[in-house]
Design a protein that fits this description.
Chain A: InterPro entries: MetI-like, MetI-like_sf. The complex is a heterodimer of chains A (340) and B (294). Chain A contains 15 helices and no strands. Chain A has 340 residues and is mainly alpha-helical. Classes of the chains: A mainly alpha (340), B alpha/beta (294). At the A-B interface, helix 1, helix 2, helix 3, helix 4 and helix 5 of A face helix 4, helix 5, strand 10 and helix 8 of B. Bound molecules: adenosine-5'-diphosphate and magnesium ion.
């Protein structure tokens, strides 16, 4: 492309006078060539006679099939075989892990100091030990495991349902103009509704059972996936699409060979975003109407003044959210390496 | 080294352009890019299409491959109209357009005709990669190879089709000078082993002279009233047409240093509106060998 452009500049930058002169010569050229084409062989013979040492034999054919020499002209490194450069400290794995753990440790120490020094009353800031004890206490009563399990289950079920629907609807809207026209205005309006606005309605319709929470989480997971997937499929590189079509791909095969793979990195980051959103919506659901789960633990402890349990629930939410996100993050790295 | 036939060869088919025009709609109305292109490409011929950048070379090629439709006129392959994304032709795009998530070999395999068995396909791809000098890079991803290698992969993908008509849009544009010469020879070897009709877009006069049976120069026609000098005549862009047709003398592979080709080269450059510095302009070109300082 660039070569074309630069050549093009060279070709078009001649002044009008020269261009016109060239055009006239061109017309003159046609006639003389026509004359020539009647007897091209004699001229060709002359040309061969004048070939000299720079003839065809001057080019070594065998070299052409040697990939090493053929590749030397190319720009940039030619693969992983190039010697690995020395990695900087910030690229080392242990440094990343240690660096990431630094701030939590500092916070823990600061927390410990603040709560035990008496600077802040324990009713406002329980010590880490009190939170730990509260956790052990809940675990011994079998509640901690139950709450974590039920919350995680809600997140996963809601996420799975919402993400699956998001993928399907996103694909429809992203791939079909008609789907886009029919669906995207309505979905855009639904997306604009704040999550908490659904809660009273869901409780009325689905009571305080599991369904109401799962549906709310599914709503939360649906929209990031729908939005990102639709956009990714709509914006698949037109040149790649055309290349696929030119080589005979249509319909489902075009979808599976070009469109879906091209969208994979976006889809994975959409899933990651949707999972984070699912945890947000989980707490929204459990805060308002539940008898189990980490959100319930928060409300219940708030009502009973158990600030140690509030801290416990918040820390658990942070850890669980980060863990699930890390798992999807690994998957994302793999997907990007494989598909991008 | 003679080229090995790369597959059950498909018969070369003729391509015919009849009054082909293409205009693109713009805010200021339709802008003609091509106008009245009449051209018959013989079966098995290598036809080079020369022209300045933006004159519609790629557009003409896309129309021949059924990737675009003319706004007027028609194009036929072997007498029947070109279908959308016509299966009889294969195109090597100006850009490599490789799928980044596939390996080089998998990208080439994309070009295989449908119904190729897995084993036959793999063997064919391996042979093509050998041919374009990329056998060692079969398992590399497009981002791990250079631009020139990507372009060769793209060429191999088009060859994998064993097409009746091979459409190549500046296939060697991104290659360094040496690789470019090798690839030109390679194309000739493949063509000799498996004669297909080739439409080759290039901006390189020497490449056209080296490869083609015939060269067509695209460009805007000089305005009918030659007296209309000045900006008005320049502004009018009625669309490019065939400005010059040159039958390249001699048989391939041609001597790259031939003085006769040099003379023809000068005339083609003239046709493209390039001052050939040192050529005495105004003097009629002759078919005798002049002493150009090339
Ligand atoms: N899809 C398109 N829409 C509008 N204009 C186009 C389109 N494709 C090409 N053109 C225009 O047509 C002209 C010729 O383009 P192209 O065939 O790519 O030129 P070339 O290959 O000779 O450099 C250019 O001016 C370009 O802007
Ligand atoms: Mg072009």
């Amino acid at each position: 492309m660039t070569a074309d452009a630069s050549r093009g500049d060279a070709l078009t930058s001649t002044d009008p006078g020269t261009g016109r002169a060239g055009a006239e010569d061109g017309r003159a050229g046609v006639t003389s060539v026509d004359r020539q084409s009647n007897a091209p062989v004699a001229d060709g013979g002359l040309a061969v006679a004048a070939a000299g040492p720079f003839g065809v034999s001057g080019i070594d054919r065998r070299e052409a099939s040697d990939p090493r020499t053929a590749s030397t002209g190319g720009a940039g490194p030619t693969g992983p075989s190039a010697g690995a450069p020395r990695r900087r400290l910030v690229d080392r794995r242990w440094f990343r892990v240690a660096g990431g753990a630094l701030l939590p440790l500092v916070l823990l120490v600061a927390w410990q100091l603040a709560s035990t020094s008496g600077a802040v009353p324990v009713s406002m800031l329980p010590s880490p030990e009190m939170v730990w004890t509260a956790g052990v206490d809940l675990a011994e009563r079998g509640l901690l495991g139950l709450y974590i399990a039920i919350s995680t289950q809600r997140v996963f079920v809601g996420f799975a349902v919402g993400a699956a629907l998001g993928l399907v609807v996103g694909a429809v809207v992203g791939l079909s103009k008609l789907g886009d026209i029919l669906l995207s205005p309505t979905l855009g309006a639904i997306r604009a509704v704040p999550s908490l606005a659904w809660v009273p309605l869901l409780i009325l319709w689905l009571k305080i059972g599991e369904e109401s929470k799962v549906v709310l989480i599914a709503i939360g997971a649906f929209f990031p996936v729908y939005t990102i997937v639709a956009a990714a499929l709509r914006h698949v590189d037109r040149q790649l699409l055309e290349a696929g079509r030119a080589f005979g791909l249509r319909g489902v095969r075009l979808l599976s060979v070009v469109q879906l793979p091209a969208a994979v990195p976006s889809v994975v980051s959409a899933l990651r975003l949707a999972l984070a959103q699912s945890w947000l919506f989980l707490v929204a659901a459990e805060l308002i109407a539940s008898s189990m789960g980490l959100g319930f633990l928060l409300v219940d402890s708030g009502n009973n003044g158990r600030i140690d349990r509030i801290f416990l629930a918040i820390i658990l939410l942070a850890v669980l959210g980060k863990l699930t996100d890390a798992v999807v993050g690994l998957f994302e790295r793999w997907a990007v390496r494989k598909w991008a | 080294m003679p080229a090995t036939p790369t597959s059950t060869s498909a018969a070369a088919l003729p391509v015919e352009f009849r009054g082909v025009g293409r205009a693109f709609p713009t805010a200021a109305g339709a802008r003609p890019v091509l106008r009245d292109v009449d051209l018959v490409v013989e079966a098995g011929e290598i036809l080079a299409i020369l022209g300045p950048s933006g004159c519609g070379k790629s557009t003409l090629l896309r129309i021949a491959g059924g990737l675009d439709r003319p706004t007027s006129g028609r194009v036929t392959i072997a007498g029947s109209p070109v279908a959308d994304y016509d299966a009889r032709s294969a195109i090597g795009f100006q850009e490599p357009r490789l799928l980044p998530w596939r390996t080089v070999a998998q990208n080439v395999a994309l070009g295989l005709p449908r119904g190729t068995t897995r084993a036959a396909g793999r063997a064919h791809v391996a042979r093509l990669l050998e041919l374009v000098g990329l056998a060692e890079f079969a398992e590399h991803r497009p981002r791990e190879i250079s631009g020139g290698m990507a372009q060769r992969t793209s060429l191999a993908r088009a060859l994998a089709r064993s097409p009746h008509v091979l459409l190549l849009d500046e296939p060697f544009g991104a290659l360094d000078a040496l690789t470019r010469l090798r690839m030109q020879d390679l194309l000739l070897e493949i063509h000799a082993a498996e004669p297909t009709t080739v439409l080759l877009v290039t901006h390189d006069v020497d490449e056209a002279l080296q490869l083609a049976d015939r060269i067509v120069v695209l460009g805007t026609q000089p305005s009918a009233d030659a007296s209309a000098d000045g900006p008005a005549a320049e502004d009018a862009t009625p669309g490019a047409g065939i400005r010059q047709t040159v039958v390249v003398p001699g048989t391939r592979p041609r001597d790259r240093g031939s003085a006769e080709l040099a003379e023809l080269r000068g005339r083609l450059l003239d046709g493209l509106g390039i001052d050939r510095h040192g050529a005495a302009r105004g003097i009629q070109s002759t078919s005798t060998i002049p002493a150009f300082p090339y």
